[in-house]
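Board work, copied verbatim: DNA-binding NarL/FixJ family response regulator
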Amino acid sequence: MRVVIAEDSVLLREGLARLLDDGGIETVAAVGDGPSLVAAVAEHDPDLAIVDVRMPPTHRDEGLRAALEARTLRPGLPVLVLSQYVEERYAADLAGGGAAPFGYLLKERVADVTDFLDAVRRVAAGATVLDPEVIDRLLDRVGGPLGSLSGREHAVLALMAQGRSNSAIAVRLAVTEGAVEKHISSIFAKLGLGHAPDDHRRVLAVLAYLGL
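↓ predict structure ↓
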């Protein structure tokens, strides 16, 4: 796997590259601003971009805007965003249209190396991975069909949004895999996601969860 890192903190940038290298993942470029991210994606055509939201010069949303621009050069580019804060609208912007895999993690999660590397690999492989705190914040503002989900169904959908498989959800919730499948079927029904050959209902459920 080949990764581009965009992070303005030199220490964190080098630390991320070291973690990835230890995990057998190649960092083909590590840059400190948005334009450099776009240039690196154009040059290296990476499998994943790891991007800080707040970068120079204003430290507001330059990283996000650069990631979206990079996707115009490389459609479908998986992007894993790292942020110090929970900022729901950034997750929604990245998920827009469901066109590409994305992840949103708080920087503090990088300290758990195993989980971080797992998230990197899952996003690169096409999964949606959201930090549990981001998911909790999203839950605070759900309504409509999402408001009809039971507590257990919310928990299952939250784990789906983290990119977990049915078997992993079953282990996390201490239930059978069959029970998880029943909950997911109920989620699909309540969200109005019927069978369609061209639709991925699991992805659509997560997008509905994000309010898209």
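The chain has two domains: 2-131, 142-209.
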